[in-house]
């Protein structure tokens, strides 16, 4: 499954979320690909998300923001099978 973290290059919470997603995947043996998109590079994303980063999304579904919500990610993975 492909996940996207919407964040910023200088955001420590963004780095922490990516690392936590990788730990989550390793613990469960899940095949997760994590892309990181810099919201500052896209005016529409910067306007939409502002300071509410990082945001974890899968396609059009927002899973969580600021910190990884392991329960929400597990529920999303279970739903999408």
CATH classification, class level: Alpha Beta
Question: N- to C-terminal separation?
Answer: 10 Å
Query: How many β-strand stretches?
Result: 4
**Helix content, binned percent:** 40-55%
CATH topology: Glutaredoxin
Biggest beta sheet summary: 4 strands, mixed
CATH architecture group name: 3-Layer(aba) Sandwich
Structural class: alpha+beta
Helix run count: 3
For the biggest β-sheet, the strand order reads: 2-1-3-4
Strand residue percentage: 25-35%
Number of domains: 1
Using only C-alpha atoms, the radius of gyration works out to 12 Å
The CATH superfamily name is Glutaredoxin
Low-confidence stretches: none
SSE topology string: EHEHEEH
Shape: globular
SSE layout and pairings?
Elements: E1 2-7, H1 12-28, E2 33-38, H2 43-49, E3 55-58, E4 61-65, H3 70-80
Parallel strand pairs: 1-2
Antiparallel strand pairs: 1-3, 3-4
Characterize the structure shown.
With 81 residues, the chain is an alpha+beta fold. It has one domain: Glutaredoxin, CATH 3.40.30.10. The protein is built from three helices and four strands; from the N terminus they run E-H-E-H-E-E-H. It has a four-stranded mixed β-sheet with strand order 2-1-3-4, covered by helices on one side. A hairpin with a 2-residue loop joins strand 3 and strand 4. The radius of gyration is 12 Å and the shape is globular. The model has no long low-confidence stretch (mean pLDDT 95).
